[in-house]
């Protein structure tokens, strides 16, 4: 009897081996397929559906606010920046400061757009104002120089934490001539931001040299390279970017509900 053994069969695979494609299957594989849709489908919330194809005005030139609203489906915004002077005294509390500024922006742009005979009055207008508040309570502006920019970021690092406060104002015209002729809803949102206390001066200087934060209050942009400076936040991320979406959506619903209730009251009186 020979000591040689017949070769063993290989163990079965976990998945069956693919069968050879037929000529028809080969042709289907060569035929280009239709591209898959990009990105998620739009939110079919009643408030957003009702605004599709309507004139919605964003009273801000901020590309970040436009982008945030686009994420929830408001992609056809009309951009009309406010021309109202932002000269309120910094002695106001941060909440009062942003609330008054956002309301002024909304009223300024509303007055400029409501009597447009070509486009018609806007269905909705959204305005916002964001400030960065140091731990001392001081309202921080945009840095005016590289030296001030570095000093600002060092202060934010050394203090450990600061706040980003945003006020949102949403308006819609009323169908009646009842004074003041519009519905207005406002809210203020705060997010606490903690910088990494171990950030080196070299890191802060390198960030300043990018100029990413040169046009931003507080001197950094959390949605970009400025995220490297942040250890953690307590609150809404998009509020730090410039517009709290959850709060904004709630105000949009409230202001349209107020307008609808006003119409219902008019009908009951008639």
Folded structure, characterized:
30% of the residues are buried. The protein has 270 residues and is an alpha/beta fold. The radius of gyration is 28 Å and the shape is flat. Strands 1, 2, 3, 4, 5, 6 and 7 form a seven-stranded mixed beta sheet that branches. It has helices at residues 23-30, 46-51, 63-71, 94-113, 146-159, 201-210, 237-241, 245-269; strands spanning 56-58, 78-79, 124-133, 139-140, 161-173, 182-195, 230-234. The mean pLDDT is 88.
Write a short abstract of this structure.
With 270 residues, the chain is an alpha/beta fold.
List keywords for this structure.
single chain; 270 residues; alpha/beta; 7-stranded mixed beta sheet; 8 helices; flat
Number of strands: 7
Helical content stands at 25-40%
Unreliable stretches (pLDDT < 50, length at least 5) are none
Helix count, DSSP H or I runs of 4 or more residues: 8
Distance between the termini: 111 Å
Using the alpha-carbon principal axes, give the shape.
flat
Please render the helix and strand layout as text.
Elements: H1 23-30, H2 46-51, E1 56-58, H3 63-71, E2 78-79, H4 94-113, E3 124-133, E4 139-140, H5 146-159, E5 161-173, E6 182-195, H6 201-210, E7 230-234, H7 237-241, H8 245-269
Parallel strand pairs: 1-2, 1-3
Antiparallel strand pairs: 3-4, 3-5, 5-6, 6-7
